Structures are given as C-alpha cells and as structure tokens.
Fold this sequence. Notes:
The structure holds two protein chains of two kinds. Chain A is mainly beta.
Amino acid sequence: MQNWYEVCAVDDIALRGSRIVKTAKGCVALFRTAQNDIYALNDKCAHKQGPLSQGIVHGNLVTCPLHGWVFSLETGEAQGADKGRVKTIPVRIVEGCVQIQLADQTALTG
Amino acid sequence: MIGGGLLGLEAAAGLKVQGMDVTVLHLMPTLMERQLDETAGHLLEKALTDRGIKVITKANTKEILGTTKVEGVRLEDGTILDANIIIMAVGIRPNLWLGKDAGLDVDRGILVNNMMQTSDPNIFSVGECIQVENRTYGLVAPLYDQAKVLGSTLAGKDSKPFTHFEAATKLKVTGINLFSAGDFAAGDDRQEIVLRDAAKGVYKRLVLQDDKIIGIVLYGETADGPWFYQMMNAGDDISEMRDTLIFGPAYAGGGGADPLALVAGMPDEAEICGCNGVCKGDIVSAITDKKLGTLDEVRAHTKASASCGSCSGLVEQLLALTLGDDFDTNAVTAMCACTDLSHQDVRRMIISKSIKSIPDVMQELHWTTSCGCTKCRPALNYYLICAWPGEYVDDGYSRYINERVHANIQKDGTYSVIPRMWGGMTTPNELRAIADVADKFDISTVKVTGGQRIDLLGIRKEDLTAVWADLNAAGMVSGHAYAKGLRTVKTCVGTDWCRVATQDSTGLGIQLERILWGAWAPHKLKLAVSGCPRNCSEATCKDIGVICVDSGYELHFGGAAGMHIQGTQVLCMVDTEAEVIEYICALTQMYREQANYLDRIYKWADKVGYDYIRSVIVDDEQERKAYAARFLYSQKFMQNDPWKERVEGKEAHHFDAPLVPKKLEETV
Ligand code: SF4
Ligand code: FES
C-alpha cells in the first residue's frame, strides 16, 4: 500500500543540495535544484549503488560521487552513453512541506 | 587449470590474482604451442612461475578424483595433485549433432563453403561449429567476419566470400607482453630473423618465406607487432628492408615511424584500450556512426581511454585518421560542454574582468547551461579561490563530496578520516587518541598510508564531526587527504638519527608542511624531503622534492608515481632552508595560478616546459619573490582547520541528519 509521508520543509534542503530520508526499504535522496524544483530518487546509483545524495547537483541532473555517472533527477535515467535508471519517487509540495509517496513504513516507524 | 593455452593461462593468472594457489597442467612440452615457438613458450613459462603459478608440462591428466566433489587429479605418470577447483580450457570441439540430425555433411565441423552455405543450399551456418576450407575457428574475430558474409547474403547483397586470415594473439595478463601471428614452424624453404636480449627478457622472431613475413612471435616487447602483422597480411615484399626489419618501423627505410601509418595499419580487432577492452573497429565505427569529433566524446561512447588514459594518444590518432582534416589536434579543448572557452581562457578572464563568483562567470562568459556541470563547477570554484584569496566565498556545492565534507568517501558510502602528522612524525599521545577514537566509534580498519600517516576507515557520515572533535582535542587537525591541495610532506629521520644524513630533513619537512598546509591547488600536491641522496623518503617521484646534500639542498619538481610514473627534474640547488622555503612557495604559487584544474605539476610542466618554470623561479628573483609573497598572503585565509570549523558548526547543512518520514492520514 502506498502512502504520502511528510519529510521536511522545502527550506530544509539547500539550493543545489540534498537530504536523505531513511525508509523501511533503504534511503531516499531528496534534491533541490538551483531552479527550486524538488525531486526524490532512490539513493542508490544504477552503476554500483553509490549514494547519489552525496553527488553534485547541476541543472536537473546529479553526478554520482563514486564514478561520475550522471542521472536525470526528473526521470532517473542515466545520461550520455551510460545505461541505467534509478527509481524516482513521487514528490509534492504542500504548504511549503515536502511530501513523498512510499510503501507503508510501519516496519520502520513502528 | 587443465590446458596451457591462451584462455587457460589468462584464467590461471586471474585466479592467482584472486589469491588462489594455481597449477597449470599442459599436455604439450611448451605452453601455447599453437601460438608460440619453443623459446617463447619457455620464457612465458618462466614468467608465470615467477608469479607463483606452477606449470607442469607434458602432463596427461588421467582421472579427476573425488566422490561428491572434486578433490584432485591423477596424471598418467601416477602423480596425484590436490585441487578444490578444476578448470578445463582444452580447446573447442564443434558441436555437430544439430547439423548431423539435419542430414548435413559434417567432418570435424559442419562443412560450409566460403559463403557459409552448408551441403543443403537452404541452410547456412557460422561460428565455432563449422569447418571451412578445412579449418575450424575459436577466436571471435573470424566469426564476426563469417557473420558479415552471411548477413550480406541474407540481405540479398553480393558479399565477398569469407577468406582465412591469420588472427594475431595477445595474452591479456598484466606485465606479460606477448604477440604472435601466422605460421612459425621451421622449414627448408623458410628463413628466420631472431633478436634475443635474454637479460631484458626480449625475444623476437620473424619467419620469412619468399621475402614475405609468414610468422611473427614477439615476447617482452610487442609494440611493433601490429606493424609486422599488417605486412604479413598484406603479403608485402620485405627484401628492401630485410637488414633492419627486426628493429621495427623505427628503423625501416631509415626514417622515423609515422604514428598515423602505424595506427592505420592496425587490424580492426587490435585492442586499443586494455582497461575496457575496446578495439580499433569499435572506436572507428563509433566515430563514423555517432559523428564523434573529440577525445571526450569517444570516451563517453566507447569507454576507450576512460580509465587509465594511457591509450588517449592512440584514440586521438584514430580520430585524426578517421576524420582526416576535420580533426584538429591543436584545437583548444573547451573546458566542458557548457562553454567553448578553454581552462586558460577562463582563468585569464576571471582576472581581467574581475569576476568573483561562479554565477557571474557563467553569466559574463556566456555559459550555455544555467548551472554548469560536474566538470566546470569544481574548476571554477578553484580558479576563484586562487584568484581572490580572502574575498571569494567557497561554494561547497561545487565541490566533489570529499572536499565538501573533508573526508574520503568509500565504496560503501562510509568515509575515511586521516589526521595530519607533520612530516610523518607522531607521538604516543596522538597514537593513544587515535586508538581511543577507533575504539569509541567501532572503527574496524586502521591503515598506515603511503604518506606516512594513519587512516581510519568505515566511519559513518553522521559520526564525522564527533570523530574530528576527539582528534582535535588531542591536538590533531585535518590531513586534507581528500584535497586537491597540499597532502603530505614525507620525511626521513635525517640528522636526528641517521648515520649518513647531511641535513635536518625531518625538521625541514615539518616546516614546509606547516607553511603549505591548507593550500588548495589544481590537483593534489605531495612533497618529500630526504636527508641525503639515498633518498629514503622517495623525493624524486613527488610533485616537489628536496634532496639534502653536504653543500645544501637540491630542489626537484614534476615527479609522478601513480598511473603515470616519472622521475622529477632538478629545479636548482640552494644553500639555506630559508631559500628552500621561498623557492617552494614560489613554485607552488606559480602552479596554483597557471595550471589547468586537475593537472598535477608534471602535467603542467610538460605543457609549459620545465625550462620555462626554471627561468621564472630560479632566474628571476623578483618574480620568485612576488610569487612567494602571493602564496603567503593567500595562506593567511587558508590555514583554519576545516574539521575544527565544522565541529563548531560551520557548513552544518552538509552534515544534516537523515530525515524520518511522517505518515499522513490520506492513503493512495
Ligand atoms: S635519505 Fe639519507 S639521511 Fe635520510 S634516512 Fe635515508 S640514508 Fe638517512
Ligand atoms: S556507483 Fe554511481 S557511478 Fe558508480
């Protein structure tokens, strides 16, 4: 079952920065671009599971910190000649709060 | 490993690298007898034995022992060898049943003609299962050719019939160079040219018939392989250059070798990039099909030269060859896809237009992206730091993760932490504090680094500041082991202890590290000071090195000991420690101000010339003093321990704790 979860305020994420959300099924990376768009992706690079949240955000792309693959924040698709895709997570802003859609988290939050 | 052929040996070497105890059993008297003559076979056997791989030749395996799993093998002579794994690499045997069941003519393989047609005109066959002109094939290159013939026929186009050619063999085992092609059996109508340098482990043999090369065996030095190979396949008459033939293209016909001709002569399946296994054909077709024009594009699309980069030259030659006049080797390469300007252009404009922030650079220099990319942002951040010390505000989000959080990210997303040990010196108290930190944070791996200090590995990001706080409390600061900037100054024990030391190398190293630490640079900067020419701190492969001698100090620069290895060149001799410091500060600043981002000193020096650097730092006192002064000025703003600052809360947003999701009522 999917639910909406509130994670933080928009301003808790720096422009061109990121935050990590701990979920029952691993970490989700939240990104805020220079254009003030918010995206959520699985925090695992399609190459070798690098933590994308630690990468450099440029445009609506992020570069993985481990070996430099670049992913679209919008689609999760690897750019250029690299092939792979990172799962994107539905995200919405409600009154300045960031909400993401996750499978039921009872396992984690008790 | 049963079978000492190409695949068997590559597998054996691979297993050995994994730490296994490997024995190769080979039926014939010498290894790879299909590709190598006896001499080369023996050289190869010796090279493998030297790496700890046991080789038993003339070994006829009679029986595999074991009831529920493999336990060993018995040889014909009764020898029993224990084994946990047995791998067979004993050649290919065409799989015939399908052809046979279909009623096709078969012999050793399914019989086909040169158009890949079997005895039933409606059935075609390619690959390892066929026999064409009495030959079967196991290497992939001729199979591709067969597929091309078949493909054209199926598409209704006229196709050239499949013709046999001698594929060249290379053994892909690091450190063993071996090239063979053609037929190298001796015979009355054949002559050979042999070059042997036993001490260097070089053996070259060409087999000739009717003034043509028909066989090539190269061991130890194989660079000329493609050249010989091309002549062999073309059937070139070599009588003209016979005297110098064995010395390769460098001597052929008297003149120097034209590198382009060499590359042009390479066969399509010649491997260009060893790291990523990319061959010439792949690169050429990527250049034509995808309309690639630069080294970077070829890298992105084929991965050729994307790892160690040692084949970049070859890739550029392929570009030049394929694109002809459209490829301009001298064109300035743009900094990245966001601009047409080169690194040097951008550096100059930052100064001349007095640009002081990344958004302003992008605005004024007409960047084509709104936010830059991973290549330009870190470079711009550095250029601005260097140009405007004390004014420019560092942009953490334009730094790679390691510099952003002042630790080194590891493959599992944890970090490693290396405190500074000035000149490689430490104290019992520091060691106790490090041990306490390791205990407290459950740090499983503690490693002594090549830079004479201690690495604590496996630290979670959320623990970094607490680890630093404890290290700070014991008087330790960041070692900048993550920085494009000053890393370490290695020293030897010098006059404090050493019998033969000429100067206080330890003290000088510590002084240098105290002056240089905290400086950001285009790339990492490693120094060493040795107390005498015995050079225990390996100063002659560092970015900057000092060798103490009786009469003073020999300054070195431009060494490298990573993927690329080269010794330093001498900058000059000086008499006093004060001069050492002045010269090194000046050299460092000149490098900081001039080099492209991500060029080490040696790369910069290769581009601008070692003599040019000497002419400024050594011959022009005024310039030297000015550089040194600019360096010291900039250092005023750099020497704050970044760990302490972050323990005190600076840039806390880079260390934010993970968020916990709060469930909302509404379900989806
Ligand atoms: S480099 Fe010379 S002075 Fe230094 S430890 Fe070695 S032998 Fe002694
Ligand atoms: S893990 Fe992301 S690029 Fe390799």
